[in-house]
Amino acid sequence: MTAERHDAWQAGDSYDGYMGRWSRKVAPLFLQWLDCRSRLSWLEVGCGTGALTASILDLCDPESLIATDASEGFIRKALVNVTDPRVEFRVEDAQALGLPSASCDVAASALVLNFVPDRMKAVREMKRVVRPEGMVAFYVWDYPGGGIEFMRAFWTAAVALDPGARDLTEDRRFPFCTSDGLIEMAREGGLRSIECIPIEVPTIFRDFEDFWKPFTLGAGPAPGYCVSLEPDVRERLREKLHQTISPEQDGSIRMKARAWAVKAVA
Q1: I need a labelling partner for 2 at 20 to 30 A (CA). Which of 54, 69, 116, 206 fits?
Q2: Please, are residues 238 and 178 in contact by the beta-carbon 8 Å criterion?
Q3: Alpha carbon of residue 258 to chain centroid
Q4: What is the structure's pLDDT at 98?
Q5: What is the largest CA-CA distance in the chain?
Q6: Strand stretches in the chain, DSSP E
Q7: Residue 149 three-state SS
Q8: How many other β-carbons are positioned within 10 Å of the β-carbon of residue 196?
């Protein structure tokens, strides 16, 4: 069983329920940090269901925005979520973008580079399409540091029941998602004036059902693993999690999610 077996990224609605709603909280903070001037031409690599896309349109006043993703399912969902005429959605491979060199001012990417088979190709492609002195910027979750607390809780319970699940966890699969690792990746990609900061947001679930349901939808490594289980095994996992999660007095579950954000000059 390989880790990639559970990386299911076609169901846009399912992804929104699992990670998209938290990405929407990170995106504005990321863009505030970039502090780009208005009327720039933007490229977004790996737009998913449109969380960063919508924030770019709302906060950055772009002259144009091309938003790409390899998943047709995500592009379909993004077209529903974001209807602004300034954005053009395209199905594109991050490792071989169909855009001319030096054709945009900013290339940005949210929560996707760790899932690209050759992430260095993706970084170099972002650098290629940006004009000289333009910006390349991206963020990924802090998997090695346990930055997504609800994901860490899920895998802790899963590994307690199935030690073989340890090899599927994002911290083991993406050890480079640290400040040092991402700075080195940007440097190897030919970028300069590299900066990296953590961005942390709250992840608040109404109740345990709100916490559990996204794991049953199949979009992403943890949900993909969850839906692959036999029903009785999945129920044992649900009970294990229920026993280990401590809700607030009102039944809500309050956790945090942390991302590492990078910006650099092309």
Answers
A1: 69
A2: no
A3: 11
A4: 96
A5: 56
A6: 41-45, 64-69, 87-91, 104-110, 130-141, 192-205, 253-265
A7: helix
A8: 17
In this prediction, residues 247-264 reach a mean pLDDT of 97
φ/ψ of 191, rounded to 5, equals -90, 160
Residue 121 maps to which CATH number? Answer: 3.40.50.150
β-strands 130-141, 253-265 pairing? antiparallel
Single-letter amino acid, residue 13: D
CB of 97 within 8 A of CB of 129?
yes
Strand order in the sheet with 130-141: 87-91, 64-69, 41-45, 104-110, 130-141, 253-265, 192-205
User: How many structural domains compose the chain?
Assistant: 1
d(CA 14, CA 25): 17
Q: Kindly state the helix (H) or strand (E) to which residue 13 belongs, with its residue range.
A: helix 12-15
Question: How many Å apart are CA 265 and CA 193, to the nearest integer?
Answer: 6
Short-list 103, 106, 121, CA closest to 52: 106
* SS3 per-residue string spanning 23-71: HHHHHHHHHHHHCCCCCCEEEEECCCCCHHHHHHHHHCCCCEEEEEECC
Expressed as residue numbers, the domain containing 228 is 3-265
Mean pLDDT over all residues of the chain?
A: 93
In 3D, which of 106, 148, 142, 158 has the Cα closest to residue 127? 106
Does the global pTM surpass 0.70? yes
Rounded Cα gap, residues 45 and 140, in angstroms: 13
Average pLDDT over residues 135-141: 97
Confidence band, pLDDT 50/70/90 cuts, at residue 197: very high
pLDDT digits (tens, 9 = 90+) for 79-105: 999 999 999 999 999 999 999 999 999
